[in-house]
TrEMBL record:
<dbReference type="Pfam" id="PF01487">
    <property type="entry name" value="DHquinase_I"/>
</dbReference>
<protein>
    <recommendedName>
        <fullName>Quinate repressor protein</fullName>
    </recommendedName>
</protein>
<dbReference type="GO" id="GO:0003866">
    <property type="term" value="F:3-phosphoshikimate 1-carboxyvinyltransferase activity"/>
</dbReference>
<feature type="domain" description="Shikimate dehydrogenase substrate binding N-terminal">
    <location>
        <begin position="206"/>
        <end position="286"/>
    </location>
</feature>
<feature type="domain" description="Quinate/shikimate 5-dehydrogenase/glutamyl-tRNA reductase">
    <location>
        <begin position="344"/>
        <end position="391"/>
    </location>
</feature>
<dbReference type="Pfam" id="PF08501">
    <property type="entry name" value="Shikimate_dh_N"/>
</dbReference>
<dbReference type="Pfam" id="PF01488">
    <property type="entry name" value="Shikimate_DH"/>
</dbReference>
<dbReference type="InterPro" id="IPR046346">
    <property type="entry name" value="Aminoacid_DH-like_N_sf"/>
</dbReference>
<dbReference type="GO" id="GO:0003855">
    <property type="term" value="F:3-dehydroquinate dehydratase activity"/>
</dbReference>
<dbReference type="InterPro" id="IPR001381">
    <property type="entry name" value="DHquinase_I"/>
</dbReference>
<dbReference type="InterPro" id="IPR006151">
    <property type="entry name" value="Shikm_DH/Glu-tRNA_Rdtase"/>
</dbReference>
<dbReference type="InterPro" id="IPR036291">
    <property type="entry name" value="NAD(P)-bd_dom_sf"/>
</dbReference>
<dbReference type="GO" id="GO:0009423">
    <property type="term" value="P:chorismate biosynthetic process"/>
</dbReference>
<dbReference type="GO" id="GO:0004764">
    <property type="term" value="F:shikimate 3-dehydrogenase (NADP+) activity"/>
</dbReference>
<dbReference type="InterPro" id="IPR013785">
    <property type="entry name" value="Aldolase_TIM"/>
</dbReference>
<dbReference type="InterPro" id="IPR013708">
    <property type="entry name" value="Shikimate_DH-bd_N"/>
</dbReference>
Amino acid sequence: MAAIISQQVAVLRRNSRTPIILSVDMTSSGLGRRDQSNSCYFDILEQGLRLAVEYLVVDLGKNRAQLAQVVRARGNTKIIGQHVFEATSRVKWTDDGCVTLYNEAEKLGCQIVRLLRVATNRDENAAVLEFSNKIHALPGDHAPLIAYNIGRLGRTSQVFNSILTNVTHPAITRSTENERDPLITSRDAVKALFQSYVLDPLKFCILGSSVAYSLSPFMHNGAHQHSGMSHTYRIPDSPSLDILDELRRDPNFGGSSVVQPWRVELYHKLSAKSRHAEAIGAINTIMPLRGPSEGGMYSLQEQASRRNQAGPVLGWYGENTDWVGIMTCINRHLSPRNAISAKTTGLVIGAGGMARSAIYAMLRMGCRKIFINNRTLSRAEEVARHFNSWASSQVDSVEVVRVLKSTQDDWPEDSNPPSIIVSCVPADPDQDEAPANFEMPLQWLGSPTGGVVVELAYKPLDTPLLKQMRRIRTDTGRSWVLSDGLENVIEQGIAQWELMTGRKAPRRLMTLEVLRNYEGESGRFDEKTIQARLDGVCS
């Protein structure tokens, strides 16, 4: 059993980015003796702790002394204390015994309490809601409560439970029905919340000067439909900043992606912004700030909890997910030989909003020597000043960003050649940006261990820089790993969708939508190419 559990946890960790909850059901174990079954149960819990699963479910009906020992040995694993009231149980949701059991689980040290009941009638769905409200009304801070009815008659309460409801998947088939098995899918639950008007259909869009070929609508709309949401994402007919006034009057506006040239300009029109956006000095996402009908504005924490609900727009909140996409691309391709250390050097080409995000991504990864080059020197110097000022109070370095004045200059002798290179040259550059046909000066490519090159432009996908780096890789044998612009588009889009909706993104589906709808110089990808890229990105 230990080997089987270890193998399954390994499979999940390799293929999924979600936390793992280990729950043990001994009702059909086939172990006859109670002491043998109990010993096996705690052996499995102990194995779960060895594997450091994120959550471990413990049966509150088991021996309290043994449970306390599990809780003490939990390490970073969070304990979910669970009790299932069978259909024959005399304890009802309205009884004080339910509150007592919750308090005992808290006293035991459980981080979350899960109480379930096999429903025998639909009235119990209202009763469990009343019990949940009673727990939420307790004074002080308490462990989060998961409470709902299980079985066919309990599906309504499963929809309205907001924390870790068990769900199934259409691909899962069972020969016999077990009343403890989940009966609704995640999509079923979300659709039911929209159909019951708990959640509202919202409108999303993208703002920028050149957004006609944006892949964001395919990504976002595909994810909305897949997840059961009634939201829509579109490209405005006249993409200009004037549209913000129109959006502010629409109570169903949910948020917008922002691309060049307004990443920095809109930054100064916000009522609030994230610490990431403040550090970068640019945004790529705006979201509405709402308030109660009696006036005022919800706190940022309350704004997050009301993400999928309509209401008057009182102001704008800004965030930046570009740095998340860049950091993910770097991390995915950075070899162990080039792991971040005190000697690591990064290089950023460009000085716009994306360049700011690239510098911030490197700083977040621990890189403290970053060079920037841009055709317009003054813009590069402005970006360097911004981050050096920020770094003086945030990290253990004063000058983290230095400017390379000319591509004709040699690489500085006091720093290692870069092993992380991010090109932020836009596909449709304005007069101040570096040219779209940028290639790396050969004297800057002296890293003996190669490194990773992230290209953010994706029109065309095979840029002059990527062609050059493939030739250099062949000629020198150095391990330069290349990441093209589509990879970053996907990663930042996934982070943005999660921010806008408050839900985990369907990563594979959003990736598939981009790959199927991208049209390059040679047309669309064939299925073989799509599958190869899916395998590489969604592992």
